[in-house]
Structures are given as C-alpha cells and as structure tokens.
Task: structure prediction
Amino acid sequence: MVETLRTLRRRIRSIENVRQITRAMEMVSSAKLRRTLKILQAGRPYASKLQELLARLAESESALAHPLFEARGEAGRITLVVFTSDRGLCGAFNANLVNAAERFAVERGRERTEMYCVGRKGAAHCAKRGWAVCGTMTEFSGNIDLERSNRLANEMKERFLSRQTDEVDLVYSEFISTARIRPKVARFLSLEREALLAGSEAAEANRRVALDYIFEPSTEEVFDSLLPRYLQARMYITFAEQFTSEHTARMLAMHNATENCEELKDSMTLRLNKARQASITKELLDIVGGAEALRG
Amino acid sequence: MADYRLQIITQTRTVFDRMVESIVAPGGAGYLGVLAHHAPLLTTLGSGKLRVRERPGREFVFQVEGGFLEVSRNVATILADSLRLLSAPAGESIAGDEEDQG
Result:
C-alpha cells in the first residue's frame, strides 16, 4: 500500500513537470504566432499591389505570349513544392499537408511528379515513402526567410523556363484565422490569366485603364520585370502563411496537451487521496483491533 | 498646388504612406518628377535617389534599387526592391530601416 502511494506521488509530480513544459511551449508558440502574423500582414500590400498591376497588363497580347504563361498541357512533368514544419509537436499539421500532397500527386500521376520539400518533416516523409525528390530546404527554426523564399521562387522559375518541369504547384497551409488553417494546393507556374484577374477588380475596368496608361520604358519591359517579382511576392506570402499556420497548429496542440495533463493530474490526485484514506482506515482498524485484543 | 498620396512599399512592409507635394524618382528611362494630377503611369525604377517633397518644403531622400512606380487616380505607389533612408527632415524618423524581421 505504501508503495502505491509513493508511485502515485511520483507520477503526479512527473505529470506536473510535463504540464509546465507544454504550457511553456504554448506560450512560446503564441508569441511566435503573433510575430509571424504581423509579418504576414505587413507583406500583403506589396503582393496585392503587384497582382493588381499585373492584372491590368495581363489583358494585353504581349502578356499571353510570355513564356511564363505557356500552358504545357496535362501530360507534362510536375514539380510539387511541399511545405511542412522542421519540428514536430504540432498535432496533425504535417500529416495533413503530406496527405494533401500525396493525394494530389497520385491523382495527377505519380511517375511524373517530383517533390521539392520545404521543411524537415516533409523531406523525411518523402524519403521514407520513396517519392522522387528534386530538392529540399530545411532548418528555418520557425522564421520566415525572405532571401530563401526569393531564391526558391527564382529556382522554380528557372526550372520551368529551362523545361526541367512543365508545371509547378505548391502545397502549403492556408492561414484563414487562428482558429482555422487548412492544407491548400495552388498552381504556381505556368501563370494563368484568370487567376491573376480573379483577385483584383473587374476585368472590364482593367482593360479600360490599361489603354490610358503610360508605360515606361515600354509595356513589354514593364511586364518582364513585373513577373519575376510577382512570383517572389507570391512565394513570400506562401511562406508567411505556412509559418503562421505552423505556430497556430503548435499552439493548439500544446494547449490541448496542457489540458490533458491537468485532467490526468486531477484523476491521479483523486486516486492518491483514496489510497491514502484507505491506508489510514486500515491502520486505525489495526490499532483498534489490537487494543480490543489486549483488553479482552 | 495640390498634394497627393504617396505609398512606398517593400516586399516585407509599408515604409511610407503620406500626403506629399512632389517626388523625383529614378525611372527606368531616366529621372522623372511627379506632381499632383499626373496622368496614369507605370514605370520601372532603376537605382538612384528618390526625393520626396512634403509641405512645407520638407524633403525625404531614399536610395532605391529597382522596383516600380505607379500613378493612378492621384495616388502614387512605389514598389521598391530595396530601399534605404538617406536623409529626413529634422525631427522625423521612419520606423525602422529595412528588413526588421526575426
């Protein structure tokens, strides 16, 4: 009996320690979430302005002739950029992303899909499952890295232009709110005119405005320099959403873990108290019994 | 002379958003000045000094490396690849200088 009391006490203590750790991790994630969310919001004006400018130009004919707009049909090779986190302890976050990626790849044809893994968890998964991997990018320690995001955007552009791939898609976690994140598959290249127009004002108005614009040095040159920057801006927003989602997921996972610890601790404490009561009762009975025997 | 709104945005944040009197920017085809009620314009930017004049006669100077300048409906927007504040009127400061993430 004494032994169980001691083990129960020990278990309660260790649960309490775990609870402190998960609680601390929840706080850390919520601080990181706040920071990445600020970065995400600060980066949006640039991306949306670029898209607005591009939408105005996308109506012109030279736009459609641009190599980045070349749709190469359904049979081409696909590069799938899979965003996951470097670290775990974030619930089903990575599993959801990897599942979305695999579902997409299987649907479009496994043999013509190559993965590009951003984040350690995805890289480990792809290696284990034997996916063709054309590149990895890891060790972000939860921070959005502008330089690496731009480099990735350029690398994908080069791959597309040099015909190493015919299509580039992104699988990342879309950040809707701190209560809602979900995996999303989005086309990165080739560019689609409809997608560019979708986010901005009505196409008709754009065409009218485009006619009145003065372009310097020329429409083509402006367009040529807008496109790579648009790709970079898009990649950057994707990174920002991904990392904001990661911290959200981890914060929720750690919040749940903390609650579970508390629940477990309560039930352990109850058992401990019962066991203690039982042992006290037993001792009393022994004493009373002994006294009775002596008197008798 | 009227004022118009100028926004200067980089990939990571909005650096400047105020009413200004005039700007002189290093366009892809040479320096150009923009006053209020300018015709709609979209130009690339080269590298050089961007001068922003604010009433009354106060001037900001930035070093710009590439980007775009767009003017429409009396709003000018500069999307800069890289931007550095060189000088600002006395008593003015523009929160943080470039790349303050992390």
